[in-house]
Design a protein that fits this description.
This protein is mainly alpha-helical. The chain is built from six helices and no strands. The chain has helices at residues 3-28, 31-40, 46-64, 68-87, 102-116, 124-130. Helix 1 (3-28) packs across helix 5, helix 3 crosses helix 4 (68-87) and helix 4 runs antiparallel to helix 5 (102-116).
């Protein structure tokens, strides 16, 4: 495995773990609280369930390298929504009460890269594609 492949796998696993943990946190903290927060931002509360599900299941899928391109696009959409609706008013580094969008921007860059990158040999996508399966 070359260094570019190793770096891509590293980015994929870190992105997946980050979203997986955020998904767990939304459910452990009470998904109703997250739905209420969404409502307070003018976003329909039911979207909290969808976002948390994508973060949880999508995070696990990205860790395993399953549907990485598709899930990375979903992550990018979630991050764009978070930046525009919740983080942008606080600025890049935040305002002391609200976190800034610097982390979201870094995760967005990782998501866009993985959405555009070729699959690696260390992914379930690669394994299933070799077996003649469906490419996600």
């Amino acid at each position: 495995m070359d260094k570019n492949t190793a770096a891509q796998v590293f980015l994929r696993v870190i992105l997946g773990v980050t979203f997986f943990i955020h998904g767990i946190a939304k459910f452990q903290g009470g998904i109703g609280n997250t739905a209420g927060f969404f409502d307070s931002l003018g976003i329909p509360g039911f979207l909290a369930y969808i976002v948390a599900g994508i973060e949880l299941i999508g995070g696990l899928a990205v860790i395993l390298g399953l549907g990485t391109r598709f899930v990375s696009v979903l992550f990018a959409l979630i991050l764009l929504g978070a930046i525009v609706t919740a983080k942008l008013p606080a600025g890049f580094l935040g305002n002391g009460q609200t976190a800034g969008y610097e982390l979201d921007l870094a995760l967005l860059a990782m998501s866009v890269y993985l959405a555009c990158a070729n699959r690696t040999v260390l992914s379930l996508d690669h394994f299933f594609n070799k077996k003649g399966g469906v490419t996600l």
